[in-house]
Fold this sequence. Notes:
151 residues, alpha+beta, seven-stranded antiparallel β-sheet, 3 helices, 24% helix
Amino acid sequence: MKRLAVIFSLCVAMSMTFLAGATAKALKGESNTPYGSYTITLVSNESGSTPVYELKYANSSKTFTVKVCQEKKCCNYVVYGEKMEMMYTCSKGIFGARRIDKKLSRLPQDQALNDINREAFYRQKVLATDGPQTTGSALGLIACYLPEIVG
């Protein structure tokens, strides 16, 4: 638990460099995992559309797409990988991992969580109880914790 608190603090601190209005710049940081450093780049944010980010790691060939879906009472960060999909959600101040909603899924529902570490997934049900303050800090948390799930 202490390790998670330290990682959380580091991720939030690194993510603070990404300002909400600075969409042209990439968010970069260290994941403190074998995947190494990460880079998050905005790839789509047209007027009226959902922002879409690309997440890459220095020591991995895997690339992930993160779609930010603002709902009425929560914000969902949908993570798409080559053979997996899941989401992180912030609702009532709780930020953590969840199964992907059927309406957002691209894979058959029974395959969405096939290529993940289920133990790590369930440990990440609650990552923060005060929720991330910005999209940048949420993306930074995802970049730091996702390697444990897709490892």
